[in-house]
Design brief:
This protein is an alpha+beta fold and 331 residues long. It has helices at 36-48, 56-59, 123-137, 139-159, 166-206, 224-233, 235-241, 262-265, 268-290, 307-316; strands at 3-11, 14-20, 25-29, 67-73, 78-83, 88-92, 95-97, 108-111, 212-217, 252-257, 260-261, 295-299, 322-326.
Length: 331
């Protein structure tokens, strides 16, 4: 699917903005703070269903009571999102819905400057990153994750009460155990697929013989009965603290370079090579799983890469539609 144009009204600092896209590469030039990232954000909302950085009330241009964004594809299809200050609606073929239907979502590789710090980020940021990636590989992953997070919120609310409803707590424990072990299986499978590719891709970028891997760090057991048992054993501590201290919501992904944690041992160049490899694998797996070549959104990352890695980025994404933001022209 090729994007032909994107139109923004009252979106971030844009009163009105229109971009006609090229089939291969489009470059959005502008100074910092001029709203370049906002254009990519609007595209992301219309292809994935939500922003990658804010809630709608924060996106609405100050002093305005609505925003509207419109995306037109090369086949004539059009997706419109409108936010009225309270609710957001997507309109496709005159049908309105509160969420972007899964059948109308399109895979996107988003590359923002903070991704280059993924190795040293907090566990929460790494979980967030891989949850987004895994959700594009399989829609069921996102559904299970949403159910798990809902059950987790409900359990945490119960834990804050002085008199805990044990019957209700047991029900949420069951759900957390089932969804948690399912997420564990998904994550184990997807990390294995990344590890099958990451060293060879890294070597092609860094031009050395180093080994790279991702270690999925989890305390979660492999079956729901053991998961449930652990939740029950932790009840006293959880009720004292007022939140659930065990589960896949505490998982982490550790990058290793030559069997040592990359955070602290990898150089700046090695770190960037690892992240590029991750992005290339992400694109390959999405195409493998969905049959769709993902749209590539690159937000001012060229300034963070040297010439060799810039060329590598261009080479690996040459068969995709790419939309780039930059403060300077790119050769």
């Amino acid at each position: 699917m090729i994007i032909k144009s994107i139109k923004l009204v009252n979106f971030r600092n844009h009163k009105e903005y229109y971009l006609e896209c090229n089939d291969e590469t489009s470059l959005i030039l502008g100074k910092n703070g001029s709203g370049k990232t906002s254009v990519l954000e609007a595209i992301y909302i219309l292809t994935r269903g939500k922003s990658f950085r804010a809630v709608d009330s924060e996106i609405l241009k100050r002093g305005q009571d609505y925003y509207r964004i419109e995306l037109v594809f090369s086949n004539g299809d059009k997706v419109v999102a409108t936010y009225d200050g309270k609710n957001k609606f997507f309109t496709i073929l005159d049908k309105k819905s509160k969420r972007l239907p899964n059948k109308n979502k399109y895979p996107v590789i988003l590359f923002i400057p903070s991704d280059l710090n993924l190795i040293s980020h907090s566990p929460g940021r790494r979980r967030e990153y891989f949850d987004r990636v895994f959700g594009q590989l399989d829609n069921k992953y996102s559904l299970v994750l949403n159910k798990y997070e809902k059950a987790l919120r409900q359990r945490n609310e119960l834990l804050k009460n002085e008199a805990i409803n044990n019957e209700a707590l047991f029900s949420w424990n069951i759900l957390l155990s089932n969804y948690g072990t399912e997420l564990y299986r998904y994550r184990t499978c997807f990390v294995e697929q990344f590890n099958q590719r990451i060293t060879s891709l890294y070597r092609s970028i860094a031009e050395n013989d180093d080994e790279v891997s991702i270690v999925y760090k989890t305390e979660s057991p492999t079956n729901s009965n053991e998961y449930l048992k652990q939740l029950e054993q932790n009840l006293r501590k959880d009720s004292y603290l007022g939140h659930t201290t065990f589960g896949v919501h505490r998982d982490d992904y550790i990058f290793e370079l030559n069997n040592k944690p990359a955070d602290g041992s990898a150089s700046r160049g090695e770190t960037r090579s690892i992240i590029l490899a991750i992005k290339f694998i992400e694109a390959d797996l999405i195409y493998q799983e969905t049959g769709k070549k993902p749209l590539i959104l690159l937000d001012d990352v060229f300034s963070e890469l040297d010439e060799t890695r810039r060329k590598c980025l261009i080479k690996n994404f040459k068969n995709h539609q790419v939309i780039i933001t930059s403060v300077e022209s790119i050769k």
